[in-house]
């Protein structure tokens, strides 16, 4: 039996060894959240943790699946719940299986509905997020949907030129107005719409009524639709129908998915309310003869800023409108604003700060800065012309004026700054800040269908006023 001094020595020595080796034993990262964002073009899987994660992956076929091994992670309840986060209508993911492959390695087997080309990258902590490991699943053999749409558009233009007379525009469905009882009620009412069946389907563009050349009404969500019919003003085109062609409006609901945008005092996210406003604007435009619409997103998922520009450019859009809801440092800021791109510096300190906040969307939403697409996009975003900026200002001024007729204006002049989302090389573009969601009173207004309709109507009337004096003439050459 050990003597007492010898025993004390061994106990103390053992304690010292444990203290010295504790820092050398790597503690596995702890998962904070797992999110799955299905979109028409890709599905994103995000693992957020309190420490950096590294992973290897391989794509297998027959059946198609993605196998991912994540180092330094232990199987826990968060990971076990991953399969339940996959929606049945996800266009890419069929199911997810999770297991502890090795003592410090978790294996994910993602069963796929189609072959994919994954992009896997890590994101450092930013804004409210900690470390993120991102898996973007793109189709391996995706068709060129935008090119098919453009061919259809050219056909519709020819039909429009041959059409004799106008058919009446269809009326929109009735909807209830009024303030929601609470934030929870509002989110529950609109969650299915914000997630939307559109999230799992390729975007549906407006179709033409046979032989009429007029846009057919696109199906809208059951709630929060417009209660009034389209205005009876003259068509926003040259009166000489021989020179007519259809106008394509690109609508860009700001933020989405991983990027919530600004958040109001009661927790309402900018990405949600601007999507609903954008859908109102879409309905107004689609139910107006000789106008059609494309949206950069039609559900709750992240779209990089340069992809928004690229989508509008590839579709050969005539106009581009990005819709947002301001957030500011203090709750007393209020009112609507309209912004355009600036060739040089911003027109005000506030405009510069606003552009910096909006341009941070890519960092928050998460993009792979090493991808080839990102490098090409940087070139695309530096091609804006003076003529395009001047046309943008001509479009923005009547829009600001129309908004000033129904809501308080934060600035009575169109502001300019270096907004990345407005850097289309050839499309007149503006960014509309509909209200300050950081202002409690304006956040409450943004939660009401009536206010969202008013804002959409004002934007639409501004676009019509611009088109009345700047009608589109010949079809521009499609950029490739």
TrEMBL record:
Major subcellular location class: periplasm
Which enzyme class? hydrolase
Q: Under which EC number(s) is this enzyme classified?
A: 3.5.1.28
Q: Which Gene3D superfamilies match?
A: 2.60.40.3500, Zn-dependent exopeptidases (3.40.630.40)
Q: Which GO terms describe its biological process?
A: cell wall organization; peptidoglycan catabolic process
Q: Which reaction does it catalyse?
A: Hydrolyzes the link between N-acetylmuramoyl residues and L-amino acid residues in certain cell-wall glycopeptides
Q: Which residues form the MurNAc-LAA domain?
A: 309-464
Task: Extract the ranges annotated as region (Disordered).
Answer: 159-180, 193-242, 249-268
Q: Name one GO molecular function term.
A: N-acetylmuramoyl-L-alanine amidase activity
**One Pfam family this chain carries?**
AMIN
Q: Name one GO cellular component term.
A: outer membrane-bounded periplasmic space
* Top-level taxon of origin: Bacteria
Q: Which family does it belong to?
A: Belongs to the N-acetylmuramoyl-L-alanine amidase 3 family.
Task: From the Swiss-Prot or TrEMBL record, give the protein name.
Answer: N-acetylmuramoyl-L-alanine amidase AmiC
